[in-house]
Amino acid sequence: MAVYTRVSDDALAAFLGDYDLGKALSFKGIAEGVENSNYYLETDQGRFILTLFERRADPQDLPYFMALKQHLAAKKFPCPAPIADKEGNVLRELEGRPAVIVTFLDGLSPSRPSTSQCRSMGENLARMHEALADFDGVRANALGPASWPSLWHGREETAESLMEGLSGLIESDLKAVAASKPQSLEIPRGTIHADLFPDNVFFIGEQFSGAIDFYFACTDALAYDLAVCINSWAFEDGKEFNYSKGAALISGYESVRPLESAERDALPVLCRGAALRFFLTRLVDWTDTPEDALVRPKSPMEYATRLAFHRKAVSAADYGA
Amino acid sequence: MAVYTRVSDDALAAFLGDYDLGKALSFKGIAEGVENSNYYLETDQGRFILTLFERRADPQDLPYFMALKQHLAAKKFPCPAPIADKEGNVLRELEGRPAVIVTFLDGLSPSRPSTSQCRSMGENLARMHEALADFDGVRANALGPASWPSLWHGREETAESLMEGLSGLIESDLKAVAASKPQSLEIPRGTIHADLFPDNVFFIGEQFSGAIDFYFACTDALAYDLAVCINSWAFEDGKEFNYSKGAALISGYESVRPLESAERDALPVLCRGAALRFFLTRLVDWTDTPEDALVRPKSPMEYATRLAFHRKAVSAADYGA
């Protein structure tokens, strides 16, 4: 939540000169996204977001993300649509960073998604998967199971300091997910968002108005995207599973794209895997952030408590399916 | 440049229910101002800024700032105008903080103000002073000369570590300004902004479109406001005085409100005092910010080099008057 790179008004004016967007009327750094610098940009032609990609973004991945959002926008799925300059380029450079201008999406992120918002999220997740069915970009999931041992290694003591016995539990989660991996590869794969937390989704009232922040998008099991949503939308106050919200997500999803039986069977292990992924990346941030940093990282414990739920789940029915 | 307090969508909806602004269509934390949390807020009725006042703001000062901006807005001087709720209150509470909704101003802050922007700034500074001539609010300048010894005390070594000999020079500046204080009290006083850096001013192209961030506003010498502008607008790359820009600021100001001869005489000491004020507050931030903080404070040295210029100035003519 920060602006890392400042853009001078002169640099902005020169940059905008290459687009058919008119001149800037307003330009403000916004606290959206954690990895890049984002600016609210208003011109004669409307409202936009200007994103500058900071060091953590791999420049080689950017064309994939641009193509993905262009594909979604062309299918009328509401997302930030990259705007091409006069020569047709969407990826540009500004202040020494890769940069893109995208359309502005109305809407607010729900702090505590309602059951009807969960249902709408499920529906729109399935719509997004369908819209991406003929997208031919491919990107490996850099935070998939193969990455977890290296995230975990050396952080066992930190986990133990957060909760006694947690280290052994995480080991068992890693083994359980690894053991089931062959099955999960047999379920339908495609392009997924992989980070569809409520923070990355906008609503106007109960109406879904769009998804943002596609920078973890990758090629993986479609039902894993639903598992990420179950973890981030259906657990209340970071702990208690809300069965109605889980059921709303799944039935909303299935109203557009019914799950195959193999996907339903895989749901508990996918949910456990998704919780592990967020537990581990939060644990890394927790360990690596200096104690006196301005921004404290989110606690990994929210995901440790979700993992406790997933360990006991035996079927998709436990999630409301 | 940060958002310190998060506002949930539910809290925002409840808060907006007390206004005639319709419902929220967009809500984003923006990186504007260094002391408070600011949000871009769009509703059915238009665009606004929602400000939450953080700890450094003295709640007792807030009614003064609100009244000042309401006064300016009523006089059609472009500034963020506080919006009253259905019961006529402008200062409210949200997420445990004093909060206000103000109108949104179009425009961009100039990174390197042009000479014509300097002239326009001078004109509009004088217009602001005239619009405030009948404002009856009073607030002492908390960062006036009386505050400087306590800001300075104990930081002599830090100054010396920035530049050998700087400590003695600052002592001489403090003495010189203190010695001239009786004169500067005889010049016209009124309500001043006291922090009109280019960051706090918007332009659309060369056209002044408004001033923001009135949270240092106070009752002091009018020409001190011009001295703050000379320091922050007419020195290029933080060092070199640009005579044309100084002349543009002063002649722009005088095209609306001619300076009295006592004000012209006081200009060098006012400029020196303004540079001291920003040198000292930056020195405090420099000393008090941990080395590994995410946001490095601005270097006090930019103002040490301005002080070197002011020490040699003998009359307003040195600034382009």
Uncertain runs of chain A: none
CATH C-level class of the largest domain in chain A is: Alpha Beta
Give me the CATH fold name of the largest domain in chain A. Aminoglycoside 3'-phosphotransferase, Chain: A, domain 2
Largest sheet of chain A: 5 strands, antiparallel
* Principal-axes shape call of chain A: globular
Q: How confident overall, as mean pLDDT of chain A? A: 93
Number of helices of chain A: 10
Query: How far apart are the first and last residues' alpha carbons of chain A, in Å?
Result: 35 Å
CATH homologous superfamily grouping of the largest domain in chain A? Aminoglycoside phosphotransferase (APH), C-terminal lobe
* % residues in beta strands of chain A: 15-25%
Strand order of the largest sheet of chain A: 1-2-3-5-4
User: Which CATH architecture of the largest domain in chain A would you pick?
Assistant: Alpha-Beta Complex
**Relative helix content of chain A:** 40-55%
Number of strands of chain A: 11
- Gyration radius of chain A (Cα, Å) is 20 Å
Largest interface: A-B, 35 and 35 residues
Based on helices, strands and strand pairing, what is the structural class of chain A?
alpha+beta
Describe the structure.
Two copies of one chain form a homodimer. Chain A is an alpha+beta fold and 321 residues long. Chain A folds into two domains: 9-103, Phosphorylase Kinase, domain 1, CATH 3.30.200.20; 115-319, Alpha-Beta Complex (Aminoglycoside 3'-phosphotransferase, Chain: A, domain 2). Chain A contains ten helices and eleven strands. The first copy, chain A, has helices at residues 9-16, 62-74, 115-131, 148-152, 156-162, 166-184, 222-233, 243-256, 261-288, 301-312; strands at residues 24-30, 37-43, 46-52, 92-94, 97-103, 189-192, 201-204, 207-211, 218-221, 235-236, 240-241. In chain A, the strands form four sheets. In chain A, strands 1-2-3-5-4 form a five-stranded antiparallel β-sheet, covered by helices on one side. The first copy, chain A, has a two-stranded antiparallel sheet with strand order 6-9. Chain A starts with 8 loop residues before the first helix and ends in a 9-residue tail after the last helix. The A-B interface holds A 1-3, 8-12, 23-32, 40, 42, 104, 106-112, 204-205, 290, 292-295 and B 1-3, 8-12, 23-32, 40, 42, 104, 106-112, 204-205, 290, 292-295.
